[in-house]
C-alpha cells in the first residue's frame, strides 16, 4: 500500500531524516578542518630537511649541523642537513621557494638572497616567497693569508696591491656574495685592484689559499685552527669590535675603513606555512641555539647569537632587502657573468 503522506508520524520522520542528512553534509567540512588541525598540532611527523647553501666542512655547515642535532631532539624527528653549494649561496632559496609549505623543507638564508634580486632575475622574491622562522647569527669575517706570505700586516698587502694592480688574488664564496661585494667596496675605498676567484664554500677557499692557488682568503671562523697553529694569519677582521679569540687582529675601522660586514643569516621555509608549525620549528631551533653544545661551536668560530623571532626576522629581511638594493646601486654591481 502507498503510505498516507498526510499522516503526522510519516511527515515528521521524513523531516528528521532530511535534517540529519543536511547536518551530516554541513559537518563534513568541519571534520576535515578538525583533521587538518590535528595534523598540524602533531607536526612534525617525518624528518625535516634543512638546506645549507654552502659546501660541507665550512663554518656555516658545522654550525647548522650542530643546530640541527639539537632541534631534532626537541622535534622528535631528524633534521637532515643537505648541502647545496654554489650561486653565491642562493640555491637553497631556489628550492624552498617552490616547496610545499608543510614545514618539512627549510633553508639557511644568507645575505645574497636579499642582494641578487636587485642584480638579476631570480627564482624567488625574498619579500613574498618565504616564511621567516628564526634569525640565528652572523659571521666573524675577515681576510687571511698564509704564514709565509710576504705581508706581515694589512697595510703591507695594500701597499703591494697599489704597486701591482690585479696581481694579488683572493677567494670568496661566489660572485656578488657578501665576501666578494665587501672586498669590492674595500678595494674601491682604497683605490686598489684585486683579482677575485669564486669558490663554492669556505673550506674550498681555505684549501686553495693554503695550497698556494690564491694569495688571500676571505673567510669566517673556519680558518681559526690554521691561524692558531701558525699556518695562516689574519690581516684584518670585518667585525664591529675586536675579536675575543684574536684580540690583536685589527678591524676595518682600525685600519681607517669605516665598515662592518658580518653577513647575518637565519632559517626560512616556503610562504604560507601554518603558523603553528612555524612556532614549533622556531621554538626547537631557539632551544638548540641556546644549548651549550651550540654555544661552544659559536665560541669556536668566534660568533655570537643574533636571535630574532619570526616576526622580527621578517621585518629584518625587508630592511636588508632595501639596504642591499642601495648597495648595488652605490657600487654599480652587475649580474653574475
UniProtKB/TrEMBL annotation:
It comes from the Bacteria. Transmembrane segments: none annotated. Belongs to the UPF0065 (bug) family. This is Tripartite tricarboxylate transporter substrate binding protein. It comes from Cupriavidus necator. The lineage of its organism: Bacteria, Pseudomonadati, Pseudomonadota, Betaproteobacteria, Burkholderiales.
Amino acid at each position: 500500500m502507498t503510505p498516507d503522506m498526510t499522516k503526522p508520524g510519516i511527515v515528521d520522520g521524513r523531516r528528521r531524516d532530511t535534517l540529519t542528512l543536511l547536518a551530516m553534509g554541513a559537518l563534513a567540512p568541519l571534520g576535515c578542518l578538525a583533521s587538518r588541525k590535528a595534523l598540524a598540532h602533531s607536526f612534525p611527523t617525518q624528518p625535516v630537511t634543512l638546506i645549507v647553501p654552502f659546501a660541507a666542512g665550512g663554518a656555516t655547515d658545522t654550525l647548522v649541523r650542530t643546530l640541527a642535532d639539537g632541534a631534532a631532539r626537541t622535534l622528535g624527528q631528524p633534521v637532515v642537513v643537505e648541502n647545496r653549494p654554489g650561486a653565491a649561496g642562493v640555491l637553497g632559496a631556489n628550492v624552498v621557494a617552490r616547496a610545499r609549505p608543510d614545514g618539512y623543507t627549510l633553508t639557511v638564508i644568507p645575505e645574497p638572497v636579499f642582494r641578487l634580486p636587485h642584480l638579476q632575475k631570480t627564482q624567488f622574491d625574498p619579500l613574498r616567497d618565504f616564511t621567516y622562522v628564526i634569525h640565528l647569527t652572523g659571521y666573524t669575517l675577515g681576510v687571511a693569508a698564509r704564514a709565509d706570505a710576504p705581508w706581515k700586516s694589512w697595510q703591507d698587502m695594500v701597499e703591494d696591491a697599489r704597486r701591482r694592480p690585479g696581481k694579488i688574488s683572493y677567494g670568496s664564496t661566489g660572485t656578488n656574495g657578501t665576501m666578494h661585494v665587501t672586498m669590492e667596496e674595500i678595494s674601491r675605498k682604497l683605490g686598489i685592484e684585486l683579482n677575485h676567484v669564486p669558490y663554492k664554500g669556505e673550506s674550498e677557499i681555505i684549501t686553495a689559499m693554503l695550497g698556494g692557488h690564491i694569495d688571500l682568503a676571505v673567510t669566517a671562523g673556519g680558518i681559526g685552527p690554521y691561524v692558531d697553529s701558525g699556518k695562516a694569519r689574519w690581516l684584518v677582521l670585518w667585525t664591529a669590535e675586536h675579536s675575543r679569540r684574536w684580540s690583536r687582529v685589527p678591524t676595518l675601522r682600525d685600519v681607517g675603513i669605516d665598515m662592518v660586514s658580518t653577513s647575518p643569516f637565519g632559517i626560512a621555509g616556503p610562504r604560507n606555512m601554518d603558523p603553528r608549525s612555524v612556532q614549533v620549528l622556531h621554538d626547537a631551533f631557539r632551544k638548540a641555539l641556546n644549548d651549550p653544545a651550540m654555544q661552544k661551536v659559536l665560541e669556536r668560530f668566534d660568533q655570537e647569537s643574533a636571535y630574532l623571532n619570526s616576526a622580527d626576522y621578517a621585518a629584518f629581511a625587508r630592511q636588508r632587502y632595501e639596504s642591499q638594493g642601495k648597495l648595488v646601486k652605490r657600487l654599480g654591481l652587475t649580474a653574475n657573468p
